[in-house]
Amino acid sequence: MSNLLERLRGRGWRMTAQRRVVAEVLDGEHIHLTADEVLARATERLPEISRATVYNTLGELVALGEVIEVSGVGRAKRYDPNAHREHQHLVCAGCGTVRDVHPAGDPLDGLPEAERFGFTVTEAEVTYRGLCPECEAAGAVAENS
């Protein structure tokens, strides 16, 4: 569980009704919603919440380091509340489901010194792609195969 709400309360983040709803929508395990998905779910809970408020709140949560903005797992950016535990992502090429994964070892070890071109490499983002069991059973074809 991401415990996003607990972390925000611990930081003394001003918890307006709108901010609370956005945080509640994002709180959980394997949450990787787009801003529009956050807006749709927040509107179900608080119909008067605006698009601008959702987008501004997401930006603030990213700036605070409490939510990670994930690119490269589809066209829209996704928001991941699992910001305090190192992880990578596993993406279904059929339906777009995104799961957090924790591979063994350091992903930096996979880049040989000769391929670093003199860079001091400090972090790596790895995205694993494949088909989830449901898409594989349905005969979906991986887009990136």
Q: How do you describe this structure in short?
A:
This protein has 145 residues and is α+β, with helices and mostly antiparallel strands. It is built from five helices and six strands; from the N terminus they run ααβααβββββα.
The SSE order reads HHEHHEEEEEH
How many individual β-strands? 6
- Report the helical percentage: 25-40%
**Residue share in β-strands:** 5-15%
Which class best fits the helix and strand makeup? alpha+beta
Query: Radius of gyration from the CA trace?
Result: 17 Å
Secondary structure tally, helices: 5
Low-confidence stretches: none
From the spread of the alpha carbons, the general shape counts as globular
Mean pLDDT: 87
- Strand order, main sheet: write it out: 1-3-2
Main sheet attributes: strand count, strand direction, barrel closure: 3 strands, antiparallel
N-end to C-end Cα span? 32 Å
Describe the structure.
Helices cover 33% and strands 14% of the residues. With 145 residues, it is an alpha+beta fold.
Strand-helix topology:
Elements: H1 4-10, H2 17-26, E1 33-34, H3 35-45, H4 51-64, E2 68-70, E3 78-80, E4 88-92, E5 98-101, E6 127-130, H5 133-138
Please tag this protein with its features.
three-stranded mixed β-sheet; 145 residues; alpha+beta; globular
